[in-house]
Give the backbone structure.
Amino acid sequence: MKNLVREAQKMQLKMQQAQNDLEKEIVRGESGGGAVIVHSNCKGKVQKIKINRNLVSADDDVEILEDLILVALNDAKKKSEVKTASHMSSLGLPNNLAI
């Protein structure tokens, strides 16, 4: 029983370390060939959005810009999921644990 508790404590420490590491890990999502770039951490918090100034003018359709932002956000999310799974695996933790 003591071994089980000890293993659970080790797992908890690894999970806390993974959470701390992934909060600091930044991924870059982009769309439109880099016209819209989103930086987020691997916990899903968007840190920064960069929009190429050439996309913005009074005559432009805002819907295009909105679509590009959405694609960039989803790209960043996908990349953070891949990086999270890799990090969890490197710590010997299951990839499907919620962080």
